[in-house]
Amino acid sequence: MRKIPLALGTLLCAAAVYAAPPAEANAGTNWEAAVTSEMPLLGHRNWILIVDSAYPLQVTPGIQTIETGEPMLAVAHFVLGAVKQSIHVRSDIFMDAELPFVPDQDAPGTSAYRRSIGNLLRGYTVVSEPHEKLLSQIAEAGNSVRILVLKTNSTIPYSSIFIRLNCKYWSDDAEQRLRARMAAGSSGDR
Predict the structure, then answer these.
(1) pTM for the complete prediction?
(2) Which residue(s) pair with 64 in the sheet?
(3) What's the total number of domains in the chain?
(4) 179: domain CATH number?
């Protein structure tokens, strides 16, 4: 008879452990403080994702997911401002290629979102990629670099913003010139 309460207690403890959210899903975390504290540590090839509420919780080791409980545009505005204020990184922005094809009749508010995000991202180059390709890139990158995923309360499909950080003080053109000099065997002293 004593074994039954012990077995029930063990089962209840196991159920509580397995029912708890994964450690990487930091619901209730102050996402703004997380972005601010992570920013000096992040560098080129790191990613910050601002995603809709249905974005999957990925299990790749380098991916940290934080539930913001905030609207997509508010989170995007804060993150883009934090990147812009940094001395070391800049934003390379990717979005789902599917977004321009999502009609309001299937997802009310999509047209208004497209206008708002277009205004917010004015001045940035935005690369459109199929959603599955972006997910694969993130999963692969998470094996070697940190990915910060900020989950929003957006319910518009394919509305996520994928920011790959790049070096602010070293341009893509400078990198191409460096690679050309290296291939030619020329030093940088000329």
Answers:
(1) 0.81
(2) 148
(3) 1
(4) 3.40.1650.10
